[in-house]
Structure formats: C-alpha cells, structure tokens
Amino acid sequence: MGQPPHPVRSAHSSGFADLQLQPQSGGHAVIARNLLAGPVQIRLQGSDARLSPAPRVLAAAEQRRLAWLPANGPGARLLLDAVPGAPVARPDDVLYRLPFAGGKARVSQAFGGRHSHNDAQNHYAVDFPLAEGTPVLAARAGVVMQVLDAATGEANLVRILHADGSMALYAHLQAGSAAVRPGQKVEIGQRLANSGNTGRSSGPHLHFTVQRNAGMALESLPFRMADDRGELQFPREDNGGGD
C-alpha cells in the first residue's frame, strides 16, 4: 500500500504515549499506544476535520484506534497530547514516609521554591540534597508506572501510581540504578533506585513530588511526610538551588 500520505507528529507526550498508522481497508487506522504501566489521558488533534479532539483515557499498555484516514485523502498533520494518570483520581490525605534512610532530612528547595518549583507540575515538590548513590525508597506503596533509567539529557526517574490515582515522582536518579520495573508492585520503604544528578540539576539531589492528572494537565499536590522523628515541616518560597 506504500507510505501513508499522513505525516504523524507527537508532541507533549514525554514518552507517555505514541501514534502509529496501520494499513486498514484502503486507508490507515490511527492507533494510539499507552507506553506506561498505568492510565494515560490522550487527545488527538489534527488538520483533518474528521478527527475528534475529545480526550480519552487509555488503560495500562492499551492500544486504541482513534480514527481512520483514507489512503487517497489529503495529507493530515496529527498531534497527540498525553498526560499520565486518570482525571477521575481523588487523592487521599496520606502521611508519606521519607524516601531515604538515615540522617536528618535536609531540604534545598521546597513548596513554591523560586528556583524551579514555580509551575503547576512542581509547585509542591521538595528537593532533598543527597550524595549520589544513596538508596531512594518508596514513600508510599503502589505500582511502578514509569521508569527512565538511561535517559540522555533528561532526568532519570521512577513514577509510582497509588491506589487513589495520585502519582509520586522520584527524579534525577542515578543512571542504571533502577531496582524496579513497570507494572511491579512496591511496598513502602522498598528500594526504587539510587539518587543521582541527571537532567537539569544544579547538584546531586532527589526531586520528589506527588501529582495528579487535573484534566490533560499534571498538577502537583501538597503532601505530608514523616521520618522517624515525626512529621516534617517544609519551608515555603525557598530560594535554594536544586532541580
């Protein structure tokens, strides 16, 4: 049938989902594929008027036909947006555990930090200065949704999906240190990887945040956390470095 006349471009997906064109019935089916071991909300847009921009949720590893384009039709530019998580999530009030063991917790940047915690995805993130190679532990039980362990120029990370639909992000991890795989269940305190200094990082640290899908947009959530001494009190509007 030859190459389809419909160029495909995927943007804003960050490896969450991709598009494929498959020959079908004298044209090409537009197939979206969830790349994560958890739900992903997607929205297909394009220059073809027959395409529906209504967001849809794909289950873990699901593939779904979104549209059909005739082989002899005009070229169409396709754009796929993808956001991890299901927008129906209603996060619970949970006391998270410190995601590493030993010593007093130090914070270089906390909620609303002006250095880089000034967008919706990271406003309620916390940066913990840690020596490279420090074991990073699960702050809450869940299922491993995403692992980036050898990213080039990006922060290596582990994303954990919780029972209430919220997600914890552990970022700037040491390359090659992941101890878990997508789809694996993890318990609180289980080692996920080692802390590192990957991606856009001004120094070795762990970037931790809890997020939800607010409807085709990631939103960070305020959270409570405790170590062996009790609940932590995070500073706000910190000027320190970190992420």
From TrEMBL:
Designated name of the protein: M23ase beta-sheet core domain-containing protein
Gene Ontology MF term list: metalloendopeptidase activity
InterPro entries: Cell_wall_metabolism_enzyme (IPR050570), Dup_hybrid_motif (IPR011055), M23ase_b-sheet_dom (IPR016047)
Domain (M23ase beta-sheet core) ranges: 122-213
Gene3D superfamilies: Glucose Permease (Domain IIA)
Signal peptide residues on this chain, from the entry's feature table: none
